[in-house]
């Protein structure tokens, strides 16, 4: 029995976090490897051999949730701690904030909606719209699996599940490169609109030209049976992709194809310098902002208040005679000098006020 008690005491660990002592077993701390608590040894500076405990000057409320995570495998968010502090504590203990339970994330989302100053702007934000669409596709998939599984073309309806890929756009909050790209497209919206307009105009014109050019001569291998097929060919040619699935066979059609390729190159190349200049500008601004020093909170120096003078106490630098009077000295005191300067300034002001009217 004593042997078992000794083994239990050897496997027990005492953790003093912020003045609150916690007791657990070493096996419990080994459940989550590659963390600070899983690497505790007596050689660390946090260990106190006298009290036989490890001391950490950290937040005790957050550590209670961290220790419960080692015990139960579920990490919950404390309600009396702000988000940045909780993330800082998790990073200190070597844990990831993504390991927080989904119930806490739902509560966090609700708090974001309640505390947002503008509910309409919060609902219509691009990140939340992506969440709405991805969630809607999930429910559509569930409905189709339950009610439309017997349909022959049900697989076509499951195409909506691909919308979940749009959640990748939420990475723009964490990637500065994607933010720069989005800002570049926003600043170049006019140029991009002009590019699309000229592309559509050229596609329609060259699709009609190649359709009628291939019909001028008798050609049994004509690929352009309609103008919509010519639209596909004109788009591929103007963007210089060139699949080769449709090619003109007549000389006039080849001439039209050459003009279409040249027009596509010129149309696409014209707005590119403007887009590149906008990208360079935003990229340089981002790099300059990253190099700026972080703003630190200014701490005002503490001003020592002067202690009140007692009737028998002399000022600094003046010895006390014990009688409550200052020692006699031939040098004028500071108070008498200030009074003399004030009198001289007052006399000068009075003299100016008297002399100026007479001169006038």
UniProtKB/TrEMBL annotation:
SUPFAM superfamilies: POZ domain (SSF54695), Voltage-gated potassium channels (SSF81324). InterPro entries: BTB/POZ_dom, Ion_trans_dom, K_chnl_volt-dep_Kv3, SKP1/BTB/POZ_sf, T1-type_BTB, VG_K_chnl. It is a multi-pass membrane protein. The keyword Acetylation does not apply. The chain crosses the membrane at residues 122-144, 192-213, 225-244, 251-276. It comes from the Eukaryota. Coiled coil: none annotated. Keywords: Ion channel, Ion transport, Membrane, Potassium, Potassium channel, Potassium transport, Transmembrane, Transmembrane helix, Transport, Voltage-gated channel. One of its GO terms (cellular component) is presynaptic membrane. This is Uncharacterized protein. It comes from Anopheles stephensi. The lineage of its organism: Eukaryota, Metazoa, Ecdysozoa, Arthropoda, Hexapoda.
